[in-house]
Structure formats: structure tokens, C-alpha cells
């Protein structure tokens, strides 16, 4: 006969804690609203500007995904604008990671990266002094958390080294992190980051 499965006192208190689950449900609704606000602000930003994007990028509506197990923690993700295909990736990904932080990531791969690679290398100066992270995990482009294995802070890169890195990689990802305590700033941070990324790939002039 198998041994009985026991709960610790802490585990039992969580099982009995209905208030936490109801509160989490309300928080989840607010997370969804916050990501929808990010999407709406990006749409408004693009509506006011004439920016010519590569064919195949989706702007009509964002895609919000959620799950319970990114490294055992719940998450929400907004992909907008986005293009995910075998040939090309062009995506702005805004992520809430429960208990950790928000992140906003710009991801280029395949045809999109080949289209903009030279512009990125030539315009790295627009990232100067920005509190950003550059992805360097060549084996797996789908890691989202900030660790030494996945990301290096921009300030830790020599610009020549970074330029060579961009020339060689199959996936180019830039990320900005926002503490959870700064929740209300996420839409502004997302727009500011997106604007800088468009400037980086020469689709938008911040002076204009």
C-alpha cells in the first residue's frame, strides 16, 4: 500500500484560502486589461504615422496568451504587432510573469532579420545608454527570463562585439524589464520601447 499523501501546514492553508484565488482572478482581469491598453496605445501610435512594414505582419488585433507554467509560474503574453512563420519573425512581445516582472521584447528572425540586419548594425547608437538586454542564447530563442545564459545587459557589450554578434545570429532579441511595482507605467514603457526599436531598424525617426 502506498504511503498517504500529506499536506504541510503552509500547503493546507493555501488550499483553504479561497480569498487568494478570488483576488488572483481579479488581478488576472486587470492584467488582461493592461495588455489590451498596451495594444490600443500601439494602434493609436501607428495610426498617427505612415510606417511601411514588411508584408505579413499582423496589425488588426493582438494575440494574448496565458499559461500556468513558465518555469512553474503563471504568465500572460501579448504579441502585437506580430509575424510568426517558418520564414520570418517580427514581433513585439509584452509579458507579465507572476512574481517576477514585466518584459517587453523585440524579436527579429529569418526574412525580417535579413531585411533589417544592416540597419540594426549601423544604428546601434540609438540604443546608447538604454537600460536594455540583448539575447545571446544561440541554442534556444524561446527563453524569456533574464539570466546570464539568455541575456546580457547592453552596457556589458562592447559595441564592436555587439555588431559582430548581430551579423552572426539567427535570432535578434532586445528586451526591457519593468518591475511589477511600476505596473501602471507598462503602456508608456511599451510604446517608448517600440518607438526605439522602429528607430533602430530605420522605420521611424524619433526626431520626426
Task: Describe the model.
The protein is of the alpha+beta class and 208 residues long. The chain has one domain. Helices cover 36% and strands 26% of the residues. The protein contains 5 helices and 7 strands, in the order H-H-E-E-E-E-H-E-E-H-E-H. The chain has helices at residues 9-15, 18-47, 110-122, 159-168, 186-200; strands at residues 63-70, 73-84, 88-97, 101-109, 133-135, 151-153, 171-179. The protein has a 7-stranded antiparallel beta sheet. A hairpin with a 3-residue loop joins strand 3 (88-97) and strand 4. Helix 2 packs across helix 5 (186-200). The longest helix is centred in the N-terminal third of the chain and has 30 residues, at 18-47. The relative contact order is 0.14. The model has no long low-confidence stretch (mean pLDDT 94).
Distance between the termini: 74 Å
Largest sheet: 7 strands, antiparallel
Catalogue the unreliable spans: none
Overall radius of gyration: 19 Å
Q: Which structural class should the secondary elements be placed in?
A: alpha+beta
How many domains make up the 3D coordinates? 1
**Count of β-strands:** 7
Please outline what is shown here:
Helix content is about 35%, strand content about 25%. The protein has helices at about 10-15, 20-45, 110-120, 160-170, 185-200; strands at about 65-70, 75-85, 90-95, 100-110, 135, 150-155, 170-180.
Considering the chains and any ligands shown, give keywords for the structure.
alpha+beta, 208 residues, seven-stranded antiparallel β-sheet, 5 helices, 7 strands
Task: Write the SSE topology.
Layout: H1 9-15, H2 18-47, E1 63-70, E2 73-84, E3 88-97, E4 101-109, H3 110-122, E5 133-135, E6 151-153, H4 159-168, E7 171-179, H5 186-200
Antiparallel strand pairs: 1-2, 2-3, 3-4, 4-7, 5-6, 5-7
Amino acid at each position: 500500500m502506498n504511503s498517504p499523501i500529506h499536506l504541510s501546514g503552509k500547503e493546507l492553508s493555501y488550499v483553504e484560502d479561497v480569498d487568494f484565488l478570488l483576488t488572483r482572478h481579479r488581478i488576472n482581469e486587470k492584467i488582461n486589461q493592461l495588455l489590451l491598453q498596451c495594444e490600443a496605445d500601439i494602434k493609436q501610435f501607428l495610426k498617427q504615422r505612415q510606417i511601411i512594414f514588411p508584408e505579413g505582419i499582423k496589425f488588426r488585433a493582438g494575440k494574448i496568451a496565458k499559461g500556468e507554467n513558465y518555469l512553474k509560474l503563471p504568465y500572460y503574453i501579448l504579441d502585437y504587432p506580430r509575424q510568426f512563420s517558418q520564414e520570418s519573425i517580427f514581433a513585439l512581445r509584452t509579458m507579465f510573469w507572476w512574481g517576477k516582472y514585466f518584459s517587453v521584447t523585440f524579436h527579429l528572425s529569418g526574412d525580417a532579420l535579413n531585411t533589417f540586419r544592416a540597419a540594426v548594425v549601423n544604428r546601434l547608437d540609438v540604443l546608447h545608454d538604454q537600460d536594455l538586454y540583448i539575447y545571446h542564447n544561440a541554442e534556444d530563442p524561446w527563453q524569456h527570463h533574464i539570466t546570464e545564459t539568455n541575456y546580457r545587459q547592453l552596457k556589458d557589450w562592447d559595441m564592436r562585439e555587439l555588431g559582430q554578434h548581430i551579423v552572426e545570429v539567427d535570432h535578434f532579441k532586445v528586451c526591457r524589464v519593468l518591475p511589477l511595482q511600476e505596473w501602471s507605467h507598462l503602456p508608456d514603457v511599451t510604446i517608448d520601447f517600440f518607438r526605439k526599436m522602429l528607430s533602430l531598424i530605420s522605420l521611424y525617426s524619433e526626431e520626426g
